[in-house]
Amino acid sequence: MDLSYSMKDDLENVKGLGKQLFEALKSITESARIGFGAFVDKTVLPYTNTNKEKLQNPCDDNFQQCQAAFGYRHVLTMTPNEKDFEQKVTAQSISGNLDTPEGSLDAMMQAAVCGDKIGWRNSSTRLIVLATDAGFHMAGDGKLAGILEPNDEQCHIDNNLYTKSSEMDYPSVGQLAVQLEKNNIQPIFAVTENVAAVYKKLSKMIPKSEVGILSSDSKNVVQLIENAYSRLSSKVTITHDTLPEDVSVVYTPICDHPLSTGGSEGVCDSVLVGKEISFDVTVTAHSCVENKSFTIRPLGIKETLTVTLSTNCMCQCNDSTNKNHFLCTDKGGISCGICKCNEGFVGQFCECAIGDKDERTLRESCKRQNGTGTECEGRGDCVCGRCQCHTTEGGLSYHGAYCECDDEHCEKFQNKLCGGNGRCNCGKCICDQGYEGSACQCKVSDESCRTPNNSVCYGRGACKCNRCECKAGYQRPHCQTCLGCPDPCQTKLNCVECLGFDSGPFKKNCDAACSASLHHVVVDQFSNLPSKQCTQKDSEGCWINFRLEQLVGEDNYMATILKQRDCPEPPSIAAIIGGSIASVALIGILLLMLVKLLLYMKDLKEFRKFENEKKKSKWADGENPLFKNATTTVANPTFTGE
User: Fold this and answer.
1) In a 3-state reduction of DSSP, which class is residue 323?
2) Helices H / strands E in the chain, number of each
3) Do the beta carbons of residue 187 and residue 216 sit within 8 Å?
4) pLDDT one-digit tens code per residue, 368-402
5) How, if at all, do strands 278-285 and 247-254 pair?
6) Which Gene Ontology terms describe the biological processes this protein takes part in (predicted)?
7) Could you say which of 216, 228, 284, 482 is the most buried, measured as most Cβ atoms within 10 Å of its Cβ?
């Protein structure tokens, strides 16, 4: 039972259902026993709050009767004592966790594999009733908590607790189904309406399981168990374990309500109590086997039937002692109805003399692909190095050098071989006159393939089934344009130049190179008819203007060439020489100016340096005694100033 906080009301009701449960069980059998287990979820984040106080009391703060968080606890071993059950269940209290899904699969796995601790009896019908109102975690969910070790499907209960809950991942649905089937346990999922759809899908993956809708307070759990058990016990399924190679088993149920399962198992439904049913079991060995065994058993019941197979593959024959029997063309004796040929002869009736060849060489000549294929493609017999073909299922014969052909597997149209308008030959349809197509599904006609100029697909495709099948690059419906083809203005330039102006690379062999693919006419001016306009530069540097029109065929054009070419004027020699001289003179002047500028900058730098040094110098004010002034002043003594 799920003891998460949402199941609080349900637990209180289950505590008072012990008497009703035992009464319901004893109405089925006098030797009933019942146990009890509880689960919540792994005690790690993000499933359970790992705060120390919350681990001890994971319920709401106002709720006092709450037990510490746990994964799975085995509460009561199987007992026939009603009081023991009531006492143990009454002592239980609710717990809690964080997320909505619970550790249901962990609990069921431990209850299934811990047989000695749970108290399962060897000869009993075993039921596990899972009561919950939530979904379940399964393999892979443990990664959310950093738990990477896969579930090992072993028992890990110590002191009534699942000890590996926080170390191992949840089991997968497949693992749980295998262990439930292995231990003959039939689960009943007693779940609330909100998760019923999930558990119904789970039930489809677990054999011999049922789903019942639990009321919101679990008051109907006893009636639910009775109804589910009734459905389980009324359906009898016979199956087997792994079969030996090349062995098949088919079950035929002999009962009032057999169910079709394709023969892999036998199922009888709606079997009433005391009703005897039987199954016919057909075992077929497709090859020789020796002492191979397998078991047949009913699901949910421990009894099994072991079947041991041995086939007698040796013929007990009374052979003639004549080594040259007439049935073997006097070239061999008979061994169990088959000719055993004398040396030098092979064949079904020893009719083939192999001479200096061996039988292996003759047989390889009956194989395709240089002797590496199947002999006569598995459709004939190799006789004297040649294939003798068998008859097909339809009564016709295989044919061909290696029996590779048959006339029954051609393409169909409207569910008729070759559309009923031809015959099949070696996998291909040969159509009657007036029909065509891979399945002879079309009448021969080219009406839709005709172009405005009355050609068929412009000569650039084939008309099949009244539809153009264009060559590579050309587009339907009439193969008129080619989107991926090279530009004809480029590819036909050399031919246009030689045909129109007698120049270019093809000048010497123009007719041989161009006359087959290009027709031309030279005009003074273009007409207004639509065509592809081209302007290209020829080998002499002139611009040629021409128009191209693609004619019927893949490489067939009509060129309309404009007589006048646009050729550039030759350069002026005088202008080139004059310009060259002027350019040289200008460059010389610029160089001289540059040199002058550099010298000026250098002198300016030196002058400024001199000025700076002059300012730093200190000169004395004294006169040089040796210095004589170059100016002499003479006064006229007689001059009075008047």
Assistant:
1) coil
2) 15, 32
3) no
4) 877 677 888 888 888 777 888 888 877 788 888 88
5) antiparallel
6) cell adhesion mediated by integrin; cell-matrix adhesion; integrin-mediated signaling pathway; leukocyte cell-cell adhesion; neutrophil chemotaxis
7) 228
- Give the C-alpha separation, 295 to 533, whole Å: 86
Fold of 488-562: Hormone receptor fold (4.10.1240)
Give the contacts of 447 (CB within 8 A, at least 6 positions apart).
Answer: 466
**In whole angstroms, what is the distance from residue 273 CA to residue 131 CA?**
27
| Residue 381 near residue 388, CB atoms below 8 Å | yes
Superfamily of domain 237-309: ntegrin, alpha v. Chain A, domain 3 (2.60.40.1510)
3-state secondary structure 193-236: HHHHHHHHHHHHHCCCCEEEEECCCCCCHHHHHHHHHHHHHCCE
From 3.50.50.60, 2.10.25.10, 1.20.210.10, 1.10.260.40, which CATH number describes the 412-443 domain?
A: 2.10.25.10
Q: What dihedral do alpha carbons 114, 119, 125, 129 form, nearest 10°?
A: -70
Q: What does DSSP say about strands 126-132 and 185-192: parallel, antiparallel, or unpaired? A: parallel
Q: Dig out the tokens for 350 from the structure.
A: 């020893």
| Consecutive H or E run containing 580 | helix 573-616
What is the C-alpha to C-alpha distance for residues 462 and 546, in angstroms, rounded to an integer?
Answer: 31
Dist CA 529 CA 630 (whole Å): 110
The CATH fold of domain 447-482: Laminin (2.10.25)
For the chain, the residue count is 642
- Strand-pair category, 258-259 with 266-268: antiparallel
- The alpha carbon of 438 is separated from its chain's Cα centroid by a whole number of angstroms, namely 32
Assess contact for 344 and 353: CB atoms under 8 A. yes
Report the topology of domain 7-234. Answer: Rossmann fold (3.40.50)
Task: List, for residues 567-610, the tens digit of each pLDDT value.
Answer: 877 777 888 888 889 999 999 999 999 999 999 999 998 888 88
Domains 237-309 and 488-562 belong to one CATH topology: no
Q: Per-residue confidence at 105, pLDDT binned at 50, 70, 90?
A: very high
